[in-house]
Specification:
Layout lengths: L6 E7 L3 E2 L3 H15 L4 E8 L2 E2 L1 H9 L3 E3 L2 E2 L19 E2 L3
Parallel strand pairs: 1-3, 2-4, 3-5
Antiparallel strand pairs: 6-7
């Protein structure tokens, strides 16, 4: 897609532990189906506040997902900047 916008579908889950269950398999498949039918979407990412099981990590990565765990998903107050629309902030990793 030379010159076109490229997007990813980003899912966030505020869970302590994510196991590879039939519901997770089904949800991942639905996201993949949606993404494959949308122009400009180039992948899927999943950010989890807690941990992913080793099976979940391997399965999602094997399906082309980028996964991150131990991500701080708590909302933050935006910094007050005069005349600014705010700034983009990367998620902060949570230490073990």
């Amino acid at each position: 897609m030379a010159g076109g916008s490229q997007w990813v579908v980003l899912g966030t889950l505020p869970v302590d532990y994510l196991a590879w269950t039939p519901d997770i398999v089904s949800g991942a498949k639905k996201v993949e189906d949606y993404a494959s039918n949308q122009r400009g979407i180039t992948g899927q990412e999943l950010w989890v506040e807690g941990r992913l099981s080793p099976t979940t990590r391997r399965a999602l990565q094997g399906r082309g997902w980028k996964v991150r765990d131990k991500v701080d998903l708590a909302p933050k107050k935006p910094a007050k900047k005069s005349g600014s629309m705010g700034s983009r902030r990367e998620p902060r990793e949570v230490s073990e």
